[in-house]
Design brief:
- The structure holds 2 protein chains of 2 kinds.
- In chain A, helix 8 links the parallel strand 2 and strand 3.
- In chain A, helix 4 packs antiparallel against helix 12, helix 7 packs across helix 8 and helix 12 crosses helix 15.
- Chain A is an alpha/beta fold.
- By secondary structure, chain B is an alpha+beta fold.
- Chain B has a 6-stranded antiparallel sheet.
- The N and C termini of chain B lie far apart (28 Å).
- Classes of the chains: A alpha/beta, B alpha+beta.
- Chains A and B meet through loops of A and strand 6 of B.
Chain lengths: 453, 123
């Protein structure tokens, strides 16, 4: 699209046409205190392209980019290698500029891609049906909670203490506008998640139990036991996964009895991208729940000549048709990120995903072994996939800061994730992926040893 | 048994203090192929003129309103597996729910078959 600026004459003609005397008059409906009264402070009215580039380059030099340092940050966003093919394919105009595929006659490419994506997510999660994606993992988590309330007609939501605190925060924020009651908790620093404690919090009013798998401390909870306990009380189990690569190594949540499985798909194909846009994944184990699902859903059908084709289906659940009675306020999806996920997943294949997962896990084991040789560093986890928690015997926030100043991005401190929990402040969450080298692990270990000495 | 109609295209059969509710042949024709019906739970109290059920066609979802006040005693489970019954047999096998009648005087404002026919012809 070309950018064609308007002339003053154009503006006057348009204002005259709608009967407004000025731009301010046009925006008279917007309260005056909400309107800008002049230029934005500190931002020049205009600058040349070269000057802007120079300025932005100067700003970007202040960053320490993930690729420029030993990098051990995870906590819901993971640095994986994204094959160059992914970027090439998603840049194709047919995908990049495609609009909502409501007209199957002209959108078969986009629709087939969504259908393949849904199939991959459903298989990865061990579920019957997946939707065409949501904004990100945390909003998918809320949508699952809202869906559980519709299915069970109950209002009490039990959040595991080891759910990502940002996900819990999104659920609490959205619940301000509903009458759901959110029962949350903090994680305890122990090697195995407190399943019995979580199960004891489920009662006959509980609509759902929300459990992260692997959890925020990197531990693998016993989903099957929680599923049985939830089902015995008539509640649903919602499993949240923030690292899809893990599902190449551990059993799928659907297989273990989770009713709704949601998560973040960023790790496959999308990249870190400064924190977004990301990719929400959403699936249900049993197809009987399909009508209560939020979001866009693509289905396979046949045309008038009996040829296979794809359409958006069950759209009456969505707000463009069902208005205020829709299952969700969302009737879109993260199309381009979903495509990136799907292309990367296709390149990996099932065998490739298993190999990638094994590689991640073995490097993480090497890192855990090496770090626990440092005096004062203790491994918390009884088990983990590619992310684990160590305790440092001192406030990890300080250590992370110091190491960052020395050019090592050591991980995410639990003090940063749970600022209100004094008991967790010694914890450091360390993520290791196939992008981590043994040299990176050694650099982290020596820097950590020095910082703790 | 007496049958009444509403201007929202519901029909209601009254037998003693129980009534059966569905949507009219005209309504199903307007909706087109029906793919899903959401019925109220047994035991729900419905209120005259308020939402009691939802009927979905391929391209739209419409509310079905209660013709009178009452408590739902039974729902048509056959519609779960075969919502198209509403198209093929709207005023018989495609019934939606049964209810106990709270106030028979509410029936007085409803149309009989002849009145409903002329109402539809005028649309």
């Amino acid at each position: 699209m070309r950018y064609l600026p308007l002339t003053d004459t154009d503006r006057e003609a348009m204002l005259a046409k709608v009967g407004a005397s000025s731009i301010d008059d046009l925006f008279a409906d917007v309260p005056e205190e909400a309107r800008l009264s002049g230029p934005i402070e500190g931002l020049p009215l205009h600058a040349s392209e070269m000057a802007v580039e120079r300025h932005m380059r100067r700003l970007s030099k202040k960053n320490l980019a993930a690729a420029d340092a030993p990098f051990f940050l995870g906590a819901g966003a993971y640095r994986h290698h994204v094959p160059a093919t992914v970027d090439h394919i998603i840049q194709r105009g047919e995908f990049l500029t495609a609009y909502t595929p409501y007209q199957p006659e002209i959108a078969q490419g986009t629709l087939q891609m969504l259908f393949e994506f849904q199939t991959q997510v459903a298989r990865l999660y061990g579920c019957a049906v997946a939707n065409a994606s949501m904004y990100d993992g945390s909003t998918a988590c809320w949508e699952a909670v809202a869906m559980a309330a519709r299915v069970t007609r109950r209002k009490r939501v039990v959040l595991s203490g080891a759910l990502h605190p940002h996900y819990a925060e999104v659920v609490r924020t959205m619940a301000k506008f509903t009458d759901d009651e959110i029962a949350d908790a903090l994680p305890s620093l122990q090697g195995t998640p407190d399943n019995d404690g979580l199960i004891a919090r489920i009662d006959d009013e509980t609509s759902c139990v929300v459990v992260q798998y692997p959890d925020i401390l990197g531990r693998i909870p016993d989903l099957a036991a929680i599923a049985d306990a939830a089902h015995a009380r008539g509640a649903l189990l919602i499993a949240v996964n923030t690292e899809p690569v893990a599902l190449g190594a551990i059993r799928s949540p659907g297989e273990l009895g989770a009713d709704i499985v949601v998560g973040e798909g960023q790790a496959i194909g999308v990249g870190l991208q400064f924190g977004g846009p990301y990719l929400g994944l959403f699936a249900v184990r049993d197809a009987k729940h399909v009508r209560q699902m939020p979001g866009r859903l693509c289905g396979e059908t046949v045309d008038a000549e009996g040829k296979r084709g794809f359409v958006l289906t069950l759209s009456t659940r969505e707000q463009h048709i069902r208005r205020e009675k829709a299952t969700s306020n969302i009737c879109t999806n993260s199309g381009l990120c979903a495509l990136a996920f799907s292309v990367h997943m296709t390149l990996l294949g099932e065998k490739g995903l298993r190999q990638l997962a094994a590689w991640n896990h073995s490097l993480a084991c090497k890192a855990a072994d090496r770090l626990t040789q440092i005096p004062g560093v203790r491994l918390l986890n009884d088990n983990f996939f590619n992310e684990f928690t160590v305790t440092l015997g001192t406030d990890a926030r300080r250590v992370v800061r110091k190491l960052a100043d020395d050019g090592v991005l050591a991980g995410v401190s639990l003090g940063r994730l749970f600022p209100q929990a004094e008991a967790l402040k010694d914890g450091l969450l360390v993520a290791v992926t196939e992008t981590t080298t043994e040299e990176d692990i050694e650099t982290l270990a020596s820097a950590l040893q020095e910082a703790l000495a | 048994m007496a049958r009444y109609y509403t201007d929202e295209h519901e029909w209601i059969d009254v037998e003693g203090d129980t009534a059966t509710v569905g949507i009219t042949d005209y309504a199903q024709g307007q909706l087109g192929d029906i793919v899903f019906v959401e019925l109220p739970a047994v035991g729900t109290s419905v209120e005259k003129g308020k939402d009691a059920a939802v009927v979905e066609s391929v391209k739209a979802a419409s509310d079905v309103y209660a013709p009178i006040d009452g408590e739902v005693t039974e729902t048509n489970d056959a519609l779960d597996d075969d919502p198209a019954l509403v198209n093929s047999s709207p005023e018989d096998g495609g019934w939606f729910f049964k209810l106990t009648i709270a106030d028979t005087s509410q029936l007085e404002g409803l149309m009989d078959e002849a009145a409903y026919q002329s109402f539809v012809e005028g649309l």
